[in-house]
Q: What sequence folds into this?
């Protein structure tokens, strides 16, 4: 890797952005951004969510024109009107949210828009198979994308970019959806391709990863570049402080507040796939006590989502009981369970947490439409809702011009703060938090962590599902590992490392004393 | 280096069943349907169920449904829900009659396509450019189609035919029959032997009295398949219906493809209107002539799971139900109820094998109900008979719509940026 940093200085840099400014009505997304990416390097761009990374990349990829500033590629000034122009200049982008059509095959997704190169038939297929090796993709091009896992979808995205002959590849938060082992595989792929002369622009706010993969780092804050650093000499903490511009948060919880009072007791919970062929949840037993944070670790798609949705009553359990504070809630509907004292931070705030087109105060009512302060008898209490929304906005530092703006106008972090604030109001006894800080900037992350810690100290029971293993280890009092619908291992957050957890999550067996298997997983059972 | 389907490490464990090719399923389906009809006609003593006359009528009546469904396929594959097919079809009927009585059948076809396309263009402008809800725009076009043609018929046709609801007669297409083959099949059909006579009857219906429009419509089906699934243009069009953001990010002109798809959709619906006007039984424009066939076409397409092959099956089913009631009346439709009982019996066995107790019980319940209906009535009341196709549509969609998969971005208004 170090060899690749010694790129000849006489050559033109791969990409130079000079003085880029982009304004949207009411906000300046980028102001006077400068960025130089040398050929053959992995250049990381770090910044909080809402700092303007995405806008900058959209400008570089031709999706939006800059208001001011210039783009140079290989020493030539260019103007991109559409992504096709950027593609022609050899720039490709792997989006954070995959840009794939699930119901089309890998091949169709790859050749789409580039049919002129090798057609859409056999020649294209041969070329795809030839390129797949570079990305580590190991599937037939005729397979539908919906059948692929997250890591393979990402490989298809990289393949798309390669197929078009891109030499500069933008990776937009590529690790957000991957488990540690997959991240390592991705990094191997990136390094391999780097040796073949590809240049990467790596956007991330995971600083350990940036330091592991990047040859140079540029930090962006509030829409402007605040400096560059050498990832070999800078620490994650220093980098993060550059990003935030202030002191740093940590998920670490200090003293235990676990009590003996059982809040949530799940016994023998089972759930089958809709066609009844295979269990999604298989005999799940779990207890969450007052003042305790129970973390669930697992590769996505192993039943975590379904576990949460079954506890919330959004899915009907096949068998088993769910008891909340000595009250059997197994037969209750979702609203009744919420009224019984469950707060719920859903994993996808856009699908389940918010109505994006509705104002903030209206979103405050959701899930509380039968309770004070947002309802009075059968009527909604809009004044009460507005007043309480003001409280949340103030207490949870939701940055918004007002409570009448639609939720869509807020950045991801601020939307999430609103959701967490709403779910912690009305004195819940149990909080279910699914990926509470996913896609959220460092500032909002710190605030959400603090609020969860504070509520835990006050006796709240918390069930935490997260793909961010540092978060899971830092916040949890107990960690359980979920694999193929079962809780297969317990881990001690005081001693376990993310790597241990990662191998337990993939079923590779525990490599550490900190992870204790609770049941044997039969291989090849299904 | 590249492995086959077996090695997919990230796919959740669930063994892939061996795929039966689509054409084999289709052939099995056709064979099953013929066997079912043949047994029914033997048991109930109604040879009309599989007679060449019924088949011929079914083809004529299925044609508009097929074309409307094909129109729906084009629009929805590009992500635009086209409930306005009915309105575009009405515009097509008026256009066909207006050009048809003056310049002959080919002019009728061209005018119908043009009028239908205009409806499609309107739908595209509303939904794609202005982001109007697809259903709202579609319903508006249906109302507009009905109102506009009423106005135009009063204006143009009334002085000629003395009837504001009807056009002067249209000159028909010449029809063609496969002479020797049809005669030979006719002999077989008259033989009244199980299966053989039934198959012969259906085949004879298919090769007798075929108009160029029928041939054109039948050709449009594989042509649409080829264009949509085997060409670059089709790939782009479908990608727009699955994930327009992804398509846009790859330089596909989303708006352009949606426009083309919806205009073609309107043209096909209009052609369906021409098929109604040029139907030998009618040969003129009549107000209310479409009778909801645009909607039924849409239903046929949904039944066919947004695929051309399935769409053909749906159109055949609805055309058959329509043809049977028109040709033979209440008694034979009742015989069809008997056929449904037989079909449900097969479904019960199938569901029992799959251990789907609830579905099996539901099927038994419906089967018993249908059987009681069959033995307690002599014929279906005529008030209901003419609604047979609509009822079949309803029943089929209620049963079949559970495992269907529409294009992912169907009905979603796309905005760039």
A:
């Amino acid at each position: 890797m170090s060899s690749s940093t010694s790129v000849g200085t006489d050559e033109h840099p791969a990409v130079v952005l000079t003085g880029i400014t982009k304004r949207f009505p009411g906000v300046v997304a980028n102001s006077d951004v400068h960025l130089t990416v040398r050929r053959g390097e992995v250049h990381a761009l770090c910044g909080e969510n809402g700092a303007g990374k995405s806008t900058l990349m959209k400008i570089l990829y031709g999706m939006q024109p800059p208001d001011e500033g210039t783009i140079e590629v290989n020493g030539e000034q260019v103007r991109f009107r559409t992504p096709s122009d950027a593609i022609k200049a050899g720039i490709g982008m792997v989006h954070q949210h995959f840009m794939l059509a699930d119901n089309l095959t890998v091949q169709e997704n790859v050749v789409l828009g580039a049919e002129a190169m090798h057609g859409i038939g056999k020649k294209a297929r041969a070329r795809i198979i030839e390129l797949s090796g570079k990305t580590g993709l190991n599937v037939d091009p005729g397979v539908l994308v919906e059948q692929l896992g997250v890591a393979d979808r990402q490989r298809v995205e990289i393949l798309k970019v390669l197929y078009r002959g891109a030499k500069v590849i933008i990776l937009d938060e590529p690790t957000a959806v991957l488990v540690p082992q997959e991240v390592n595989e991705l990094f191997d792929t990136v390094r391999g391709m780097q040796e073949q002369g590809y240049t990467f622009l790596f956007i991330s706010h995971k600083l350990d990863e940036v330091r592991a993969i990047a040859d140079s780092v540029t930090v962006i804050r509030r829409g402007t570049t605040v400096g560059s650093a050498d990832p070999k000499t800078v620490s994650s903490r220093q980098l993060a402080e550059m990003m935030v511009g202030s002191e740093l948060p940590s998920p670490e919880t200090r003293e235990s507040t676990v009590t003996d009072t059982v809040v949530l007791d799940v016994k023998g919970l089972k759930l089958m796939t809709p066609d009844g062929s295979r269990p999604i949840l298989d005999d799940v037993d779990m207890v969450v006590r007052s003042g305790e944070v129970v973390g669930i670790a697992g590769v996505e798609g192993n039943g975590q989502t379904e576990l949460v949705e079954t506890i919330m009553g959004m899915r009907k359990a096949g068998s088993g009981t769910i008891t909340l504070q000595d009250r059997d809630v197994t037969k209750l509907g979702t609203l009744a369970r919420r009224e019984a004292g469950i707060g719920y931070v859903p994993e996808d705030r856009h699908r389940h947490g918010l109505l994006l087109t509705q104002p903030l105060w209206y979103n405050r009512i959701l899930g509380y439409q039968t309770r004070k302060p947002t309802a009075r008898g059968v009527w909604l209490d809009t004044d009460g809702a507005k007043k309480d929304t003001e409280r949340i906005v103030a207490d949870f530092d939701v940055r918004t011009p007002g409570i009448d703006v639609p939720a869509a106008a807020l950045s991801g972090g601020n939307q999430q703060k609103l959701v967490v604030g709403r779910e912690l109001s009305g004195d819940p006894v149990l909080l279910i938090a699914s990926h509470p800080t996913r896609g959220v900037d460092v500032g909002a992350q710190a605030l959400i962590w603090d609020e969860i810690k504070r509520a835990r100290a006050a006796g709240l029971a918390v069930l935490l599902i997260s793909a961010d293993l540092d978060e899971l280890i830092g916040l949890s009092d107990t960690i359980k590992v979920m694999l193929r619908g079962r809780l297969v291992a317990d881990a001690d957050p005081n001693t376990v490392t993310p790597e241990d957890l990662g191998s337990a999550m993939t079923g590779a067996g525990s490599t550490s004393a900190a992870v204790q298997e609770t049941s044997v997983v039969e291989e090849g059972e299904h | 280096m590249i492995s086959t389907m077996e090695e997919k490490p990230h796919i959740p464990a669930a063994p892939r069943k061996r795929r039966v090719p689509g054409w084999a399923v289709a052939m099995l389906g056709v064979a099953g349907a013929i066997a079912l009809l043949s047994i029914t006609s033997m048991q109930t003593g109604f040879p009309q169920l599989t007679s060449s006359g019924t088949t011929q009528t079914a083809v004529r009546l299925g044609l508009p449904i097929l074309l409307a469904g094909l129109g729906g396929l084009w629009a929805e594959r590009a992500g635009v829900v086209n409930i306005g097919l009915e309105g575009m079809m009405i515009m097509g009927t008026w256009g066909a009659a207006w050009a048809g009585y003056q310049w002959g059948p080919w002019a009728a076809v061209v005018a119908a396509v043009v009028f239908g396309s205009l409806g499609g263009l309107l739908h595209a402008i509303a939904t794609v450019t202005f982001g109007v809800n697809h259903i709202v725009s579609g319903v508006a076009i249906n109302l507009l189609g009905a109102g506009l043609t009423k106005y135009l018929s009063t204006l143009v046709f009334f002085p000629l035919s003395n009837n504001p609801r009807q056009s002067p007669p249209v000159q028909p297409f010449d029809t063609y029959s496969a002479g020797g083959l049809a005669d030979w099949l006719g002999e077989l059909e008259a033989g009244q032997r199980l299966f053989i006579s039934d198959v012969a009857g259906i085949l004879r219906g298919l090769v007798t009295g075929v108009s160029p429009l029928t041939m054109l419509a039948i050709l449009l089906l594989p042509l649409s398949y080829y264009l949509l699934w085997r060409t670059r243009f089709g790939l782009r069009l479908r990608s727009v219906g699955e994930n327009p953001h992804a398509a846009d990010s790859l330089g596909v002109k989303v708006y352009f493809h949606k426009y083309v798809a919806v205009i073609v959709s309107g043209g096909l619906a209009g052609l369906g209107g021409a098929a109604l006007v040029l139907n030998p039984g009618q040969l003129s424009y009549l107000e209310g002539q479409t009778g909801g066939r645009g909607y039924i076409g849409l239903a046929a397409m949904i039944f066919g799971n947004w695929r051309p092959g399935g769409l053909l099956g749906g159109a055949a089913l609805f055309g058959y139900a329509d043809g049977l009631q028109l040709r033979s009346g209440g008694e034979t439709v009742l015989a069809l109820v008997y056929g449904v009982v037989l079909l449900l019996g097969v479904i019960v066995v199938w569901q029992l094998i799959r251990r789907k107790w609830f579905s099996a019980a539901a099927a038994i319940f419906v089967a018993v109900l249908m059987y009681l209906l069959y033995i307690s009535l002599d014929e279906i009341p005529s008030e209901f008979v003419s609604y047979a196709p609509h009822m079949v549509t309803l029943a089929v969609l209620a049963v079949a719509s559970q495992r269907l998969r529409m294009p992912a971005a169907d009905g979603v208004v796309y905005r760039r940026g």
